[in-house]
Q: What sequence folds into this?
């Protein structure tokens, strides 16, 4: 805080004298005021000392020229102003009490997050076990919204204009092709989507073409192509149970990481990428996911074994954590906290898909190795 912000009183006799000489009724001359040392003391009104021969101050304070007492009951004898200390001493700020320790906070509206999570879970489970085609449609819609969020943030923060129209159409087609034609259909749809991105961008000026199409191909792989493995899981005879286990293990892994990390987290896992994640949280994710995996493989999956569930849970915890860190890396590069605001308490659709997308091919592959494609 500088001197000008302290606000000196404006009554007569308080301002510095003019060139006309000393002012009757003012305090006797004292040592020169040191502005540097005053900054180290408690804020208080500053009263310049009176010079015997005037000073260099701006002569625009006419009230300082009044001669005589300020009030009727004052005597003409010069008295020091009550606000001026006789023996000024540096007054350092009194020691402040230490701030009270703050409780750990989740950083989000947990009520809204739980409500939205339960609602989404109900829609997903209902569509999954009632009509498979409806669930495929839910996945396609989530993919399109996720692509829109990702391309929107790239445009806003980096000026990268990945073409959303071929990405949205190709992404939805990719999910359907994975469900109908399996891995072959997914790869063909991926190739056609990449080609459509290259051609669509040719309608714009060539400046920035390379970065735009590169971002477009990356978005096509990152969101819809990885999501096709969920659709391919669904094609098995026990497909709904496989997809349910995939979703459950990912949620359990995230929940274990959050619960253990929030309570016991002390050592940062990747502070430059995601400061909130801890090694203790990772151990919680692994423990929760392995237990849930053993139970799911034993009781949900035909011909599944509990030890296979342990390996599956370990793989899910690793892939979910890496997926979360991967999107955190993208968001740090973009300088944002969330990809969107569509889901209160969660952020955007991409903020919920970050763990699911890289986990889908891992679960699909391990299930094929353990119990076959169904």
A:
């Amino acid at each position: 805080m500088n001197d000008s912000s302290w606000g000196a009183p404006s009554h007569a006799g308080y301002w510095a004298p003019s060139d006309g000489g000393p002012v009757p009724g003012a305090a006797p001359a004292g040592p020169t005021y040191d502005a540097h040392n005053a900054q180290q003391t408690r804020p208080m009104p500053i009263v310049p000392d009176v010079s015997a021969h005037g000073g260099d101050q701006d002569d625009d304070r006419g009230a300082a020229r009044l001669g005589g007492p300020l009030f009727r009951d004052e005597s003409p004898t010069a008295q020091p102003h009550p606000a001026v200390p006789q023996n000024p001493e540096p007054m350092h700020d009194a020691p402040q009490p230490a701030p009270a320790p703050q409780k750990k906070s989740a950083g989000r509206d947990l009520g809204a997050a739980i409500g939205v999570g339960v609602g989404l879970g109900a829609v997903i489970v209902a569509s999954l076990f009632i009509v498979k085609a409806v669930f495929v449609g839910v996945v396609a819609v989530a993919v399109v919204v996720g692509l829109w969020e990702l391309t929107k943030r790239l445009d806003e923060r980096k000026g990268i204009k990945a073409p959303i129209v071929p990405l949205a159409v190709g992404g939805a087609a990719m999910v359907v092709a994975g469900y109908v034609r399996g891995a072959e259909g997914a790869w063909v749809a991926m190739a056609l989507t990449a080609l459509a991105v290259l051609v669509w961008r040719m309608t714009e000026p060539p400046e920035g073409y390379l970065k735009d199409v590169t971002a477009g191909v990356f978005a096509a792989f990152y969101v819809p192509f990885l999501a096709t493995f969920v659709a391919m899981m669904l094609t098995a005879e026990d497909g709904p149970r496989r997809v349910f286990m995939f979703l459950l293990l990912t949620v359990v892994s995230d929940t274990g990481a959050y619960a253990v990390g929030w309570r016991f987290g002390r050592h940062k896992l990747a502070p430059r990428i995601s400061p909130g994640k801890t090694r203790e949280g990772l151990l919680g994710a692994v423990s929760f996911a392995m237990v849930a995996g053993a139970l799911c493989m034993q009781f949900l999956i035909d011909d599944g074994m509990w030890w296979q569930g342990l390996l599956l849970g370990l793989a899910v915890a690793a892939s979910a954590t890496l997926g979360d860190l991967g999107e955190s890396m993208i968001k740090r590069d973009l300088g944002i906290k969330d990809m969107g605001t569509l889901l209160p308490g969660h952020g955007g659709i991409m903020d919920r898909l970050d763990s699911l997308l890289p986990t889908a091919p891992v679960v699909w592959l391990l299930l094929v190795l353990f119990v076959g494609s169904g």
